[in-house]
Fold:
Amino acid sequence: MGGINQVLDTALTGLLAAQEGMATEANNTSNVNTPGYAVEGLNQIETMGTAMPIGGTGTGTSVASIQRSFDQYVYQEMVQADSVNQAAQVVLSGTSSLSSVFPLASGGAGGLGNIIGSLFTAANTVAQDPANVANRDAFLSSAQQVVSLFQSVGSELSSNISTVNGEVTQSVTQINNLASQIAQINQDILSHGGPQDSATNSMIDQADQLVQQLGAQVGITVSAGASGTMDVYLANGMALVNGATSYSLATTSGSYNDGTLSIKYSPNGEDLTNRISGGQLGGLLTMRSQYASANDTVGGLAVALSSAINGQQALGLDLNGQLGKPLFSVPAPVVFAGIGNTGTATVSATITNSNAFAPGNYTLTDTAGGWQATNLSTGQATMLGSGANLSLDGMSIKVSGAANVGDSFEIEPTLQAATGIAVINSNPSAIAAAAPYVATAGVMTSGAISDSNVGNVTMTTGAPTTSTSLPAGTVVVPSTYFGQQMSVKFTSATTFNVLSSSGATIASGTYSGTSGTELAVAYPSPPAPAGEVTTFTLSAGTPATGDSFVLTPGGTGNNGNMVAMADLRTADLLSGQTLSDAYTTMVTDIGDRGAEANAAGQAAQAVYTRAQNNEQSISGVNLDEEAANLVQLQQAYQANAQVIGTIQSLISTLLTAMHG
Amino acid sequence: MRISTTEFFLGSLNDMLAQEATVNKLNGEIATGQTVTNATDNPTAAAAVLDTSNQIDQISTDVQNAQAVSGTMNETLGVLNQVDTLLNQVQSTALQGSSATSSAADRQALASSVQGSLQELMQLANTQLANGQYIFAGSQATNAPFQMTPTGQVVFKGDAGVDTIEIGPSLKVPVAVSGQSVFMQVPDGNGSFAVAASGTNTGTGVASLGGVLNASLIASEHLKNTQFDVSFTAGAGGTLNYSIASGTGVPGSASFTASSGVVASGAYNSSSAALSFGGMDISFSGTLAAGDHFMVRTSQTTNAFQALQDIITALQAPIDGASGTRAQSNQLIEDALATLNQVHTSVLSAEASLGTSLSEINAVQNQDNAITTTDQANLATIQSASLPNVMSQFSEGVTALQAAQAAFGKISGLSLFKYI
Structure:
């Protein structure tokens, strides 16, 4: 049985515990705004007293530990939710800045689609009055405007891409720093070795906070190790922190040295770029590919526009009577050789048919069975066979040198098209507005055409086409005579000759009076595509021998080619779509992704807020609670002090009694 | 549920931020008047905005085309109208000349008046637009298409090119008429065949071009370049017999070969019906004499200038010489008038084709305007902010934000520490 001093000791333990408690409350209160801090509480136990036969009392209280109020699962859920939310917010702000590259001003004015439309309007204006130089100038300045807009959109997208690459580097640096800090804390916790006390608690708090920061950078999973350490893994299972060891990521140029940063796992050099998800880094990588794909599509529009206009130019005559020269230039597809290539092969590519081409990138790998192309957007692989000349989705690919099996190349067909498109002809007379030939009934004598045809056959000019699509047996005048004045003369009711300007027979054909007959003159190639011809039709009817038609090059007042150029507005030019449809599709896709990102961002934010609330409801500091606890502890302290006071008065009563 | 103090503050802060974002977005809509400013706002609406504005733009291009070319076409039509008037004048002048009372001097004066008309026709045919382009030159629009050679022939230095332009979706109209077809491809005579009197005729008979009985027969004679020699011989009792031989070469000249022989013959009676042969029929006025020849052939291509020149030549032909000269001259006028009529037809058909294009332009333009109006209304519905709606949403947002701020003020004052 304890004496009165025992009571004093017991009261003292209460006093000390209350002090300790108040220190804990003070710590809680002072850390109310500290991120990662988990509210702490006393783990107070009763001290055992001397054993009594029946009953007995303890000898006071002691503080067994100071415990963090913490739930590992709730915490991990919050880290994950934060990670997802960070990625979603990066994508949300990224898609919104991407879609602002393609604004929809009132009535769609000023956008790329609208400006391309203006170019065709300007082409119509030239067609209204083809010899008018002011109209031609307006067409050229409209072309310049289109080019400037392509360039500014392209450079905006490339600057977005390079900003993202910078942010990727920063993010990876931060991930490495955080991982090594967590490993350091793990090390500290392990070497501390003691029971869980306030020193360990604050280390664990810091580690928790660092893990959350790491999760904000990249998607991770966390597992609590022994003695309060944290092991961190990337979402694909690769370890970032394992006990006291951290493993780093590195940004390197990819396997094609194409300027796109890849992310590698340093310990084994594995490329993780396509396997990282979540966190800022995951969001940044998503946005980088969206920007790149928008740049490719805009580049595709630039290529399609340029090749269509240049192609039409090559089929008409300019004000000087020459076949038109290209108006636009677009950088060729970019080909990057694999850094591990062992052969000497080099590869170049050209887009030959933009209508069969879908903007996107490819890899080309030499396999034992020939070249294999893989579309990087769809993943579809195609065997192209072997040889120096390959063709793929509207592109022709030229291989020179010798490749070894396993050598590969990355083809980015429209990487530089948007930023690099340019108007290369600023001379208004260079616009090829005129059709190559006009057919006029009669014969040409010293510059004048006199018509004394007896029969009722007429001759009209038709559209350019390829020689393979002509009816069998159609007379095609060789391209060497192209540009010369020619004539067609009936030699009987069913036969005709084509005569050169000097009167020499250069071709002969048969004529059908019931269905009429086509004939054609081949364009010189280049500039026109191989096999391209311009056509004429002799109408059905009855000709008399000697009936003639003169074919003269289209004059300055002719708008035949310009009308065809203006018609390109409604022609399918890119991946089976008109330019304006392709533009609309792209903008709508971007809008769809933006709307998705918006929904995903809101959802992720809500999930994170809920997870954070859950975590805070367990680990957060509530000042009212602290105040109440403080009052409670104060009262405990006062009560214990009162006990000591009472004992003291008991003792002094006793002493007074003894001394009498 | 236990709530941490941080969460308590953060929660109301987030509420305020969300309200501010809403108010900011609505404020933007009020400022721009648009609900859709980029595709993310509403991808479906964005697609509709782009498609609709593209259609509006395309139609407005077509409308511009139509307006631009209808100016030129109206100008062309004006020129053709002037040509019309000119031809009418020439016609009445020629008719005056063919009257029985006109003297050689009268005819000379009329001839010089037609000479003036010929100059005027040249000018009209070489009309330039304000931009210097020759209306009737085809694609060779920078050179005067109709030029007179030293021998008085008018030659065509243009071509048959006729520009077209789009005035509606996939709808193109020709914007000009070929100068060659208006002025240079005129069939002479009545358009099917022509008659000429022999210079040795002594009668006063003048052949008038009758109707076409069988167009395909004429066409086939045309291809064979057949010429007919209609000759009159004396019959019994002062009557006349006629005989029509067909062949090649110019009838009455040594080059004529009656390769097909006589195709019709019989007694000629001035009161009888017209003579019919080779799908044509001709009748005569005045009195024919034995030994008179008329040459008939299918029409050949001549030109408007030549038609006027023929009238001048006819008016200048002698009328006071041997018997039959006035009739011969009248025959020339008769033929030239028929040809002039063909010129007229050619001009009228050019006017008609321009008129058709113009009325098509009108019709399409009305349709274009209707489509544009609908499109613009659609665009406004899709893209424009409805101000009453947006304003009321804006006020709601502002009220909610104020409420959130007031709540924050209250919450921030709550602390147990105040009471201990």
Chain B touches chain A through 82 residues (CB under 8 Å).
